[in-house]
Design goal:
The protein is α/β, with parallel strands linked by helices. The protein has one domain: Rossmann fold (3-Layer(aba) Sandwich), CATH 3.40.50. It has 13 helices and ten strands. It has a ten-stranded mixed beta sheet, with helices on both faces. A hairpin with an 8-residue loop joins β3 and β4. α5 crosses α6. It is globular. The N terminus and C terminus are likely disordered.
């Protein structure tokens, strides 16, 4: 069961933009999985790709498991010939490429190519401690995906290199904030843990390499200038980002926070911390009052809660939203916010009020 649960409290998942039933959007979504290798062969990246296609069949469901809904796609379909903007999706701690699949239908419908890598060491399928302790490699993973997709048009089509964005949930939110150019201080974060202990996050810091001996690579400039807009969904470990670097960021960031704290990730210490130091505009902050940390993940299937209680007691929290929350309604709201933000910063169109 743990193969599809992803770790009970800090998974990554993301929102959809006009929550269309799979049958409505499926015939336009191509899907394939690829593996990217590096020169050392130590950090191969498994990457899921979704992209516009003119193919109409055969349809099959991707990114589905016993707990979460998937979406209908056409496996290995030929991409369209025109250039498309690119959105990268970054999952959370011990999550995987499936976590943000609910956002894919709306993004592809709007013309985006979508790419979601599994981050080695912090994914469901690879929890090697040596790789987990290289938090700084997560932004590099996204840059490697950009490198490949902008040079190889056979995988998902032609990428418009001037229109690239990144979206991350939970630890993925940390990842895309670093990708935007925010600089990180392990000492600052550890001092915050001393002053304001957070048992869950602070206990994970050494596992992720948030230690003084790793300050060199962790505190380096991880910015990728090809990324023109970034969206953070209820991120964690935010207080290690230095206020100075946040206040001078040039890349626009949409920061969305969950109003219901059920994962020991206080809004004011995480998403609110970014908001307190980012320049606004170009960045923007909004709290979703009825959302929990896990509302940014896929929609749970009927019976998922009972299944989790039986197979992985405690993990049923991933299907829980705020008291008045409805995950599909939250997804529609978040998708609209994301769509407007990307329209503003990737196409030059003014965002709707």
């Amino acid at each position: 069961m743990r193969k599809f649960v992803l770790s009970a409290w800090m998974l990554a998942g993301l929102p959809l933009a006009l929550f269309l039933p799979p049958a409505q959007a499926a015939e336009f979504i191509g899907f394939r999985e690829v593996t990217l290798t590096d020169t050392s062969q130590q950090r191969p990246l498994h990457v899921a790709l979704w992209y516009p296609t003119t193919a109409t069949a055969p349809l099959q469901t991707s990114a589905e498991n016993p707990v979460f809904q998937g979406i209908a796609t056409i496996k290995d379909a030929s991409p369209t010939g025109s250039a498309h903007p690119l959105v990268l999706l970054s999952h959370g701690y011990r999550g995987n490429w499936r976590n943000l699949n609910w956002l894919v239908s709306s993004l592809v419908e709007q013309g985006y190519i979508v790419a979601a890598p599994d981050h080695p060491g912090t994914t469901t399928f690879d929890q090697r401690p040596v790789e987990a302790a290289k938090l700084w490699e997560r932004p590099h993973d996204l840059s490697r995906v950009i490198d490949r997709l902008t040079s190889d048009h056979t995988l998902a089509g032609t990428v418009d290199s001037q229109r690239i964005a990144a979206i991350g949930h939970s630890l993925g939110g940390w990842t895309v904030t670093a990708l935007a150019g925010a600089r990180y201080s392990a000492q600052r974060y550890l001092e915050e843990c001393r002053l304001h202990p957070n048992p869950r996050l602070c206990a994970l810091a050494p596992e992720l390499g948030i230690t003084p001996e790793h300050q060199g690579p962790l505190g380096a400039d991880l910015r990728d200038p090809r990324v023109k807009a970034v969206i953070s969904l209820d991120l964690g470990f935010a207080q290690g980002f230095t206020p100075e670097s946040l206040s001078t960021l040039k890349t626009p960031i949409l920061v969305l926070g969950a109003g219901e704290n059920i994962a020991d990730m206080p809004l004011e210490e995480e998403s609110g911390y970014l908001n307190a130091h980012l320049a606004s505009p170009p960045s923007r902050f909004q709290v979703l009052a009825d959302a929990s940390h896990f509302s940014f993940m896929q929609v749970c299937k009927p019976g998922a809660v009972a299944l989790l209680k039986k197979e992985a007691p405690g993990d049923e929290i991933i299907c829980r939203d705020g008291e008045a929350g409805d995950r599909q309604a939250i997804h529609r709201q978040v998708a609209k916010l994301i769509g407007d933000f990307l329209d503003q910063w990737l196409t030059g169109q003014p965002a709707a009020d």
